[in-house]
Specification:
Elements lengths: L1 H18 L1 E11 L2 E10 L7 E9 L2 E9 L6 E12 L11 E11 L2 E11 L6 E10 L1
Antiparallel strand pairs: 1-2, 1-8, 2-3, 3-4, 4-5, 5-6, 6-7, 7-8
């Protein structure tokens, strides 16, 4: 019983540090998604470094789910790298609709201005094997 109490006490004391999280959202113009909205959660304490991140984005030309490390944000210069799955729909730029891609996105921010670029490989059937992305956005 003493071991369980000790473990419970340790879990309660460390939970705020482990589960500390900050939400964010933004608006972006990018290829192939055109105009999109993005939202996500950065985990851990905001110490100015890279933080684990989960992010979702939906736009006119498709949507994206990403996980990675993110140091972008408010009042500073920051960088991020994320693995992402991108799905096209409706009218994407320079690629067919209804295709799925897996890839990597690199991001840089100056204060709230966000710049991104990425490379993706098509998964499954379709005409486009590779996809390059570029975007500019604003974080709130």
């Amino acid at each position: 019983m003493h071991v369980r109490s000790t473990l419970l006490l340790l879990a309660l004391l460390t939970a705020p540090a482990v589960f500390a999280a900050d939400g964010f959202f933004g608006l972006r113009l990018s290829s192939p998604l055109i105009a999109s909205g993005t939202a996500g959660v950065k985990f851990g304490d905001d110490d100015g470094g890279l933080r684990p991140t989960i992010q979702a984005e939906a736009g006119v030309g498709g949507g994206k789910l990403a996980v990675g490390l993110d140091g972008t944000g408010h009042g500073k210069v920051g960088f991020g790298v994320k693995a992402a799955m991108l799905r096209t729909w409706i009218e994407p730029i320079d690629v067919d609709d209804n295709q799925t891609f897996l890839g990597v996105e690199l991001e840089a921010s100056i204060k709230r201005l966000l710049l991104s670029t990425g490379g993706y490989r098509r998964v499954g059937d379709g005409d486009d094997d590779w996809l390059g992305t570029a975007g500019v956005g604003f974080l709130f």
